[in-house]
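Protein modeling request. Please complete all fields; requests missing the sequence field cannot be processed.
Requester role: graduate student
Desired output: 3D structure, token encoding
Chains: 1
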Amino acid sequence: YTSKSQWEPIMGSYSGGASLPLWYAHYDGRESFSDFAAFGGWTHPAIKQYAGDKTQCGAGIDLSWYPSFANHTVA
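Delivered output (75 residues):
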């Protein structure tokens, strides 16, 4: 779990984790990967956290989205 804005200042050009699925954060309120820009060796994400500081059933939560796995291969 990371974001491009946090990855690059800390990890620089390191891409050793790119074989693992990426869960990235971009709080733009959209359930879509259309905002994704490659970083850290990842060319596509698996999950996006798109909203934070929400409340459901009295508990604070963040909202995440991922497309249906029916159309994707997970390595």
